């Protein structure tokens, strides 16, 4: 009975869906031993470090990941970094196939003057900070100004703006990092501007996200009715279903009477960022009114760009334009890629399921005679590997710590704390 060994690098949604696809293809004649390698001491990728903490339903997909992880033949090697603890060549030698599922963790840059001033950062920093990612705990997020500007019109921009604009008490029953809740409770930010370079008809938000905004209990949400009506005219009769749904949702918001809340989230359309200005730190953003020569500026002390992500280059893996170079998920020799590292940062978590399944079919087509090779356990020289059992201990400890304070979990915030919870 052929039994193949597959290494999956990256324990996020794409990695788990790739493992699940292989497990679904198990037959009496074909079996896969799957080793999942993860840089952090915790698995689940964006489900832990990306999804907004006030969206707990989206995180229930972690139950699927745990089911995959508890299938026979699956092993987790977390706290193991490709390039440091193990090389791509070692994986290629020891496994029949290697699947890269490392996502896109780098925030794209605007490329405008002032972008690197203190007070200007990417959502790729701000989001993992509030989600207790161990690499971002020490970020100093300056929340002392009255106004913050979020650049971008996608769901990440929406998450970031909501986190800044909601009443932080609403985060108490969530798994937001303790340090972020404390900082947000001290925050002076009362106006959050989401700026889009194009009109409402081109916004990348999805309508469920827009439709939940009026449910914010302590935040005024402001969209100009003039902007939405102009967008409806521009979109014309051949308008796509999703665009119509978005514009309908925006119109509902625009039609609402303003409330007396002292927190406001305001949409600014047709605003192309030109420069971030300030003496030693962010003081204002200069925009050009898209399609005209007119400029205007917004005074603010915090700018967060949410304009897309790029994959982190991996040594020994071809990389171009923010992605791993691939043809339908095939990279080279016995290397494959799935998820955002393959196709760029698009789609929802579930999109990775069909995407990974397609690539795993190709991987199986390419398989030759199973390799009779060594074990990853012998390759990794440090003794701080987080196995599935260790992770389960961490998971249970975090959930238990959350229970008395009414949270789904209380996340540990440093690698040391996480390893301690895992009894490593
Ligand atoms: P996105 O949906 O691609 O949105 C990126 C936004 O950045 C677009 O509005 C884009 O505008 C803008 N942008 C790009 N370059 C820019 C520039 N130089 N200057 C100004 N604006 C610029 O990306 P995302 O928000 O990072 O989300 C990534 C994926 O995750 C998406 O598929 C998203 O739906 C998904 N996601 C889903 C959820 C959820 O389901 N709740 C939550 C978060 C993320 P243009 O269109 O003009 O280029």
Automatic annotation (TrEMBL):
Pfam families: Pyr_redox_2. Its cofactor is FAD. InterPro entries: FAD/NAD-bd_sf (IPR036188), FAD/NAD-binding_dom (IPR023753), Ferredox_Rdtase (IPR055275), Ferredox_Rdtase_adrenod (IPR021163). Keywords: FAD, Flavoprotein, NADP, Oxidoreductase. GO terms for molecular function: oxidoreductase activity. The keyword DNA repair does not apply. Transmembrane segments: none annotated. Residues 4-339 form the FAD/NAD(P)-binding domain. Belongs to the ferredoxin--NADP reductase type 1 family. This is Unannotated protein. It comes from freshwater metagenome.
